[in-house]
Amino acid sequence: MTQLSRRTILKAGMAGFAASAFPGIAFAKAKKEDKKAAKSAAAYDAIVLGAGAAGLIAAITAVDSGAKRVAILEQMDRPNGNAIYALGNICGWGSKRQIRQGIKDTAEDFYKAMMVTSNWRADPALTRTYTNDIPSGLDWLEENIGIEFGKVKKAPYPREWRINPILGKGITGGSQMVQMLVAAAKKRGVVFLWQHRADKLITDDHERVIGVEAVAPDGRKKFFTKGGVTIATGGFSANPEMVDKYIGGWASRLAIRGSLSTTGANISLALPLNAKFVNMDQFHAGPIIAETHVNPNEVLNSGYGIIVDLRGKRFVDEVNTYVIKAKACAQNTIENKAWAIVDADCKVIGNMTHRFELLNTKYYKADSIEALAKDINIDPAVLKKDVDDYNNALKNGTLKQMNPPCSYRQPHPIAKAPFFAIPYEGGMTATFGGPLINTKAEVQTLEGHSIPGLYAAGNAAGGLFFRDYIGGAQLGGATVFGRIAGREMAARAKAAK
Ligand SMILES: Cc1cc2nc3c(=O)[nH]c(=O)nc-3n(C[C@H](O)[C@H](O)[C@H](O)COP(=O)(O)OP(=O)(O)OC[C@H]3O[C@@H](n4cnc5c(N)ncnc54)[C@H](O)[C@@H]3O)c2cc1C
C-alpha cells in the first residue's frame, strides 16, 4: 500500500469537511449541460482571449499544430492592445537573419543579460525557455507570417546586436505585426468573435477549464473548448483601481502610454481559480506627453540638462534611465509633470523639436534662462538658480553632492543659447504581474500545480519580467509563450478526441 503523507491525509480530511460544510458553494458541481457542451462537436479545440500579439500567435499556432476549430474572443471591434502601440522591436539572438548578418552570440550570454536586467528576479525556467525558443520564434515570424524586419540593431543594454526591428511601413512596427497576424489567422480559418468581453472561466468539477463566458452586443454567451483557454488579454495598466491596489496610489497618476483596453482581465479571470499571482508591483514606465503621445525619450536619455518640476525644483538624478525618470515624475511631483531644461549644445534637440512640431506638441525656446522660465510659468529667479547651481557644481566637481545628486559621467554645462524646455509626464507602458505560468504556459495555482486547460501568454502572464526588460523582450515573450500555448491547446484537444 502506498504510504500516505501527513499532508495528504490532512488535505483529504479538509476536503471532506469543506464539501459537507459548504454544499453548493466552494465545491459547486459544473452544470450538466456545460459538461456536455464541452464534449460536443460545437466545442472549440482552442479558445484564445484577446487579439493582441500573444493571442493571435497562440491561435495561429494552435491551427498549425492540428487544432480544427479555434476562436479568438476580443472585447473590442478590432485588436486594441499594447501591441498596436509598440515600436515593433523584438529582442533575440541566433535567428537565421542574425546569423546571416554575421552576428555572434550565445544562449548563455543572452540568458544572463535577461536575468541581470531583472536583478535575477525573473523566473529562471521561463527565461531559459525564452532564450531557447526565441531564435525559432523570430524565424517563424519571418518565414510563416511574412513579417519583414529591418537590419538588426544594438540593444541599449548590454550593447549587443539583439534588436530585430519590424518594418512598420508607415505604421508602428507593432501594428504591422498585428495586421500580418490577423491576416494569417483569417487565412487559417480562426473564428474572430469581436466585441466579446470574456469575464468568467467555466470549470468542471475537477477544476479543469472547459470554457468561458463573455458579454457580447447580443447578450451573455458561453463558449466551450476541448483543448483549453489561453488568457492573452494583456496586463492591467489601464485599470486604475488595480494599479492603485497592486502598485500604489502614486502609480495610478501615471499617464497611459499604450492601450486603454488592458484592464486586468488576466487577474479577474484567474483569481477565482486560486491562481498564483507574481510580480504584481512590477511594471515598465517611460516618459510621454499624454495629450499628443509624443515620446520625449531622446532628450531625457541625451546626457544633457537638468530636470525640474513645475515649481522649478530638481527631483531626480538626471543620470537615471528614462524608466526611473518617468516613475520619479509620478512619485515626486504633485502633477506628474516636469521639464527637461537643455541648451543648444544638446545633440538631439534638433530631432526632438522637429518631432514635437510634427505632432503639434508645445515646447519652449528662449535666449535666456529667465525668459524661458517666464514662458513655462516658473519663477525666473528659481530656474536661474537651478542652472547656476548646476553649472557651478560642474565646475567645482561637486555635482554628486547636490540634492538630489547629479551623477552624469560626462556632464555638459547649460550655457549656450537658445535654451529649451521640453515637457514630459511619467507614463505606464505595461504591467509585468499576472498569473504565474510554467514553461508550458500553464497557469499555476497557489498550491503549485497547473490548472488543467488554462494557459496565459504575453503581458497577461506573470514570471518572465521583473524591474525592467531588455527592449523588444515583451513582444518576444508574447511570441515564445503564445506559440507554446497554441501547441499545448492543440495537443490537449487531440488527446480529448
Ligand atoms: C508605446 C509602447 C511601445 C512599446 N514598444 C515595444 C517594443 O518595441 N517591443 C516590445 O517588445 N514591446 C513593446 N511594448 C510592449 C508590447 O506592446 C506589449 O508587451 C505587447 O503588446 C503585449 O502583447 P499582448 O498580446 O500580451 O497584449 P496586447 O497587445 O495588449 O493585447 C491584449 C488584447 O486583449 C484584449 N482584451 C483585454 N481584455 C479582454 C477581455 N476581457 N476579453 C477579450 N479581450 C480582451 C484587448 O482589447 C487587446 O486587444 C510597447 C508598449 C507600448 C505601450
Describe it for me?
The chain crosses the membrane at residues 42-63. The protein has 497 residues and is of the alpha/beta class. The protein folds into two domains: 82-188 and 231-282 and 432-496, FAD/NAD(P)-binding domain (3-Layer(bba) Sandwich), CATH 3.50.50.60; 285-428, Flavocytochrome C3, Chain A, domain 1 (Alpha-Beta Complex), CATH 3.90.700.10. It has 15 helices and 20 strands. The strands form five sheets. It has a six-stranded mixed beta sheet with strand order 6-2-1-10-20-19. Strands 11, 13, 14, 15, 16 and 17 form a six-stranded mixed beta sheet that branches. Strands 3-5-4 form a three-stranded antiparallel beta sheet. Helix 3 (53-64) runs parallel beside helix 7 (173-187), helix 5 packs across helix 6 (124-145) and helix 13 packs across helix 14 (380-396). The two termini are 34 Å apart. The model is unreliable at 1-29 (pLDDT under 50). Bound molecules: flavin-adenine dinucleotide. Flavin-adenine dinucleotide binds at residues 49-55, 73-76, 79-83, 85-89, 174, 197-198, 232-234, 257-259, 261-263, 265, 429-430, 458-460, 472-476, 478.
Give a brief rundown of this model.
By secondary structure, this protein is an alpha/beta fold. It has two domains: 82-188 and 231-282 and 432-496, FAD/NAD(P)-binding domain; 285-428, Alpha-Beta Complex (Flavocytochrome C3, Chain A, domain 1).
